[in-house]
Amino acid sequence: MAPAVPPPSPPPQNTGAALELLVHGVGGATPQEMLGDPRTVRVTGDATAAVYRRTEDAHGEKYPERYRDEPVAEAYCWSGLTSGNGSRALWLLLLPFMVVNLAHWMRPTATGRTRAVRLYGVVVRLVALSLTVLLTAAACEVALDLVAWQCAGTSACSERRSWLGFLSSHQGGWWSQPGRRLALAALVPAALVGLLWYLSNRTWSAYESQSPLDAADADACDPDGAEEAHGPGAADPSDDGRDPVPPALGRPGFWYGRRLVARLRAAHTAAGFLTVAAAVSGAAARHDRTAGSSVPQVFGAVIEGAIVVCAAVAVWVVCRRGRSERARDMRLDGALITYLPGSALVLLGLAVLHAGWSRPEWQSSGSLPGETAFRFLALGQGLLVVVLALVARSLYRRTPEPRTTLYGLGGPSVAMLACALGGVMTGGVAQRVADWLDGPGTPGMGEGSIIEGPPVLLSWQASVIPVLLLLLLAPVLYLTVRTARRARRMGPDIEAEYAPEPPDRARTRRIARIRATAALTDSAPWIVGVVSAATLLLGAAAVVGSWTSGEVPGRATDGAAAPVEALAEAAQSTGSWLIGFGFILFVASGRRAYRDASARRTIGILWDVGTFWPRAAHPFAPPCYAERAVPDLASRMCAWTATTKGRLIISGHSQGSVLAAAAVWQLPDTARRRVGLLTYGSPIERLYGRWFPAYFGAVPLLGLNRSVHCWRNLWRATDPIGGPVRLATDPDPGVDRGPLKDPLAYGRTTALPLPEPILGHSDYQADPVFAKERTALLEELGPRLPRQAAGGVSTQKSSGRSSG
């Protein structure tokens, strides 16, 4: 007879209180709202981000007998990192930089393709650098060309603007010479570049300088956890090859990219200053190469050559080094980050002095030749996006994941959108300023105009915007019809779900409409793909049109072509108005958010989603709040488990669930297996898994589930953001719980006499399943505190792993 197999020993005893660490989602929440109590106290943290408890729970660890049935609740509030004060609403103007930074993190999963991954990162960083040059070039176009060269050089324009009187060429003053006007106007774009450098440096110090856990912190987190980790009930990392590759978000240096941000900041600052220097010195050098110039042309040639060399160094710095994540890189390239922007600033100063040299014979007419620069920028951005698409597609074909957005082309599509946003902002500023300076006329169009206006390319780009909007009508109409049909098909299923309650057609239609609308989130990638592809093709057409014709669309040259020319002129006028309106909307939104707390919170939601990722491609993007929030959460979990040896559940809603998962990945292995993860309304797979497969794809999420002690994910069909985790394993790990019933009651009942709301993405705690699953997680983590039986004899409930 075979010997009896001894039963598995129970997991290590936890005699301390349990803790539930709550993390809110987008838009923020107060600790009073999260804890359901107006009386709260700050446990640790500062005014920007902190952990709070109810006042009565301030010292809960000292009285564990009070928390046998439910855990001590703590709330981590991080809304101050994104939507705290009004000045952050101005980050809206940095939207193109934020979008291109997202493209860096959207690369497909790669296995054994180190060179391709590096090439992907290099191309994204070059696209980001082109956006900095584009924004600076737009400022130069407005300040140098439209104001200092065209308007101040034309008496009809300068007379209308009294503040330009001292620059007017007809006043004969010291500043009336074109070179000196350009030198003075160069202060505007140079100040813009300096402001971006200052904001990037300041926000790093304020938000992203929080150091993550190091080896000493990890040892202190669980000094004797090695034995416990391999005890009964714990996951074995060597078990059938589970989680063989460490997740990227668990690397020690992932949330600390100080060295790369400093290098990129130096390169982009230098590129901005060099763009201004090239605009100033280029105009002066071109004049010096003409006959009769009083300044030797060798001066301009030397400055332009030095600008080219310095620009090459800036490009080399951008291409040379990417992120270093395997260890915290505390070093700084001091000489590089000092001398590179310093050299560019010196060259700008020399260019200003060169342009300010007296040239009495120099007269300004027409416009500065900036057309070629904008054409090469647009062409270069299009080529870089095409190369990025080829690299991304190659990576995807090597390791295909069916749920990946656009078959691996999500990153290139988003990079194209960033370029389009940069073009809209560039064209919007130039067109609106030109219209304002020209008065009742249209710049460059007809006898009523007094200035030439912005480059022709911007007019061609404006003319394709109405075409792009018309192309978008088809997918929008298709999705509208499909959603309506899906809602009608859902009716019988919804009534059967709430049977035997009597059907209510209005109630059924409302529930079905909300569920069908929530499913539109899964169609968003194709909308992005269509917009990006159309933008690339129409942008190429605009470049070709401006290059071949050399004039704005709609300028009639032939009577037979009059209808076509009229249509082109209408498209150009409409697009120009839309570009200007779009830029004004950007500015107005920032202004309103500065004054209105509700609007500031709405814009804060945009940053909550867009600035989760570190600045890896563009140093002038809005700061990454996760580089502060993730170390905060990981440190708090480590400190509490090391001090109390108790059970811990980190409970995250919406974006808070992504922060919770990232913080769990940062924990040491032994500590991670003593933590339970509860997520609800979570976009961790539906959005992050599809758009960022290399970091939240199927393999990393499966590894997270196998390394953490236990995990539950709650979701609703009415939630447009949250969804299931979809861990495809055999057997099913049982992480997902849903779809939860929403609303909880179809009609009026004795227990719920008033109509129940459809909650969608909010109030998951109101569902009884939430408390049930939280209790199940606590039981899986370990037994409750022993109760005192009659006569003073302690008894203890047996506990096992809950089936959920």
UniProtKB/TrEMBL annotation:
InterPro entries, per the entry: AB_hydrolase_fold (IPR029058)
Chain intervals with Polar residues compositional bias: 793-804
Protein name per UniProt: Integral membrane protein
Region of interest called Disordered, as start-end residue ranges on this chain: 215-244, 781-804
Domain of life assignment: Bacteria
Entry keyword set: Membrane, Transmembrane, Transmembrane helix
Chain ranges passing through the membrane: 89-107, 119-139, 182-199, 266-285, 297-319, 331-353, 373-392, 404-430, 458-481, 523-547, 575-594
Composition-biased stretches (Acidic residues): 216-226
